[in-house]
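anyone else get weird line breaks when pasting these?? whatever heres mine. first is seq + tokens for prot A
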Amino acid sequence: MELLHNREPYEAYLAANPGSKYALYFPYGGSVGLDLSLTLGLFEITWISISEGMTTRSTSAKVYKRTDTTIEGGSIVTLSAPYKGGWIAAIVKK
């Protein structure tokens, strides 16, 4: 089963324990769909900046675009990196 949708070549990479945990890596920013259609429930997202070495649950609109801290399973969810550069989204079921 393909878990990433609307992915450009080299845009994003995924390591997953489907239904439980996901690590989504954006080397240069970007936006992709993550298929959570077979998993109901709430997921918590923590964004990690590769270049800054910092974690953030939500971001300031002054520096990065605002991001959700949770997403709902049961569909394909679009995730967008907060800014250019390398980002990891750590996604864990609550």
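and prot B, same format (seq, then tokens)
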Amino acid sequence: MTGKRSIKTDGPAAARPSKPPADSKPASGLLLVGKFGGAQGVRGEIRIRSFTQDQLAITEYKTLLDSSGQRRFRILKARPYKDGVLIAQVEGVSDRTAAEALTNLDLYIRRDDLPEPEEDEFYHADLIGLEARLEDGTVFGTVLHVENYGAGDILEIKRLDGEEVMLIFSKANVPRVDIAGGYVTVNPPAEIEASPTGEVS
């Protein structure tokens, strides 16, 4: 659609992290992509909840990290289980005891490991947390998340008054994105005031 901006997937094979529950604050530069579940059987297999849009895309990352960025994990093989959960064999995990020791551990990748996006293309994780400013420089709010319900990418913005609004990520609505500067310029349509919690186009 004309005027749409592009939000690049956060990794291989359409691996865009969805909106996962973050239990702990990770080291800087890490993106949450999954979480270890419980052990599966007695041979070291473990369940992994994938937060990537394509649940198997998490297996294409060569290295997964814990929240400190120090512990490293490599998925040797995996198969779909149900509801975004995989059954996986992880390098160095060969029995049930070792698998149980990883239960509920969050899995991350390094932002720096991702290729740079093309011009006018943005990783959705880079947009989250940016300040949203009006064109005159007035602070409007903060980008909380990026959604896509099939008709295009939408920025979820929390305004200064606490209300959350949904703004379609188009050049008309978001004329400037300054990742380095830490902000996006937004031009919300007039009807946003009449319906502060609704999606606007």
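btw re prot B: The first helix runs from residue 96 to 100. Confidence is low (pLDDT under 50) at residues 193-201.
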